[in-house]
Fold this protein.
Amino acid sequence: MADEKDILLDSNDDLIFKDGDFAIGESLMQDVGIILRLNQGDLKSDPLLGPSLIQLEKTIEDADEFKERVKIHLKRDGKNYNKLKSRINMNFKRL
């Protein structure tokens, strides 16, 4: 997986500025975090992208089903779950 660079966001998803311009940097985990917070239909450009994890929180008790949804939606965006899983903290209580 190549280094992905994009405009950076802070912890509130606000743009970060540096020297009067957009801050640019490694954005892979930022992208993953955004994808995991999406619900299907949130993106006009790809309405199927979004695992809708918030909706599943109270209906699914099986962590494997959560992981499968995450894998599917990361793959849809061209990301490899197996390369990222050690960096993704899936704490279901915080969803």
